[in-house]
Amino acid sequence: MIFKQLFEPVSSTYTYLLGCPETGQAVLIDPVVNSIDRDLRVLQELGLRLAYTLDTHIHADHITSARELKQRTGSRIAAPAIDRLDCVDVGIEEGPPLEVGSIGVRGLHTPGHTDGHFAFVAGERVFTGDALLIDGCGRTDFQNGDADTLYRSVTGKLFSLPGETLVYPAHDYAGRHVSSIAQERARNPRLGGGRTLEEFRQIMGSLNLPYPRFIDYAVPGNRSCGECPADLPQELQKYCGQMAQSPQG
């Protein structure tokens, strides 16, 4: 499998490219709208054709490029079926994997950060979105998030994967690139080391995080598979910089 980890610095988002060397088909997991040109360039350099975009959840901190990439490349939009988005071509559920050439991408419903959140397993890698971060996890105080549910998703599903499974999160804010299930199971300060549900509740309840600065624009934009609003304040224009050059059709 051809694999690339790509980083978008405005929202500190990792996008993952998985390519099949036999068929030349590829999937982008959690693509970001301001990085369309980069992603298309990488696909071209590797001689790959984008078959699918695949989002782990409805993001609150960036706009997906799923819609724009579909318009440019003919790729299909895949996303969790539970969110019932009209713009999605393939609804992902637990069960049969999404097949991209010889690559199988298996969905795991991991709610708690959002109620529709999925992680994706491909070979020895798991793409955990915001459910499990390196030494952390996503917040649970918006988009129907719930600390108890996230605890069960991580400890019951993700931590049950083989310890050598490589963990690739949707974000990292400290320059880290990869972890493993064994490492997070042992030392994640929020969920690892045998943390109890009550301890996790207390940790998440005491975070006192600020209101997400882009959420009021990102969530409706992502419910349309990637539409940037026309009325963005000047200080938020950087989140949709690409769209100034590539307006939605």
From TrEMBL:
Q: Please provide, alphabetically and separated by semicolons, the GO molecular function terms listed in this UniProt record.
A: hydrolase activity; metal ion binding; sulfur dioxygenase activity
Q: Which domain of life is it from?
A: Bacteria
Recorded hits in CDD domains, A to Z, give: POD-like_MBL-fold
Alphabetical keyword list: Hydrolase, Metal-binding
GO biological process annotation, one example: hydrogen sulfide metabolic process
Pfam families linked = Lactamase_B
Which segments constitute the Metallo-beta-lactamase domain?
12-171
Mind telling me which SMART domains this protein's record contains? Lactamase_B (SM00849)
- Write down what this protein is called: MBL fold metallo-hydrolase
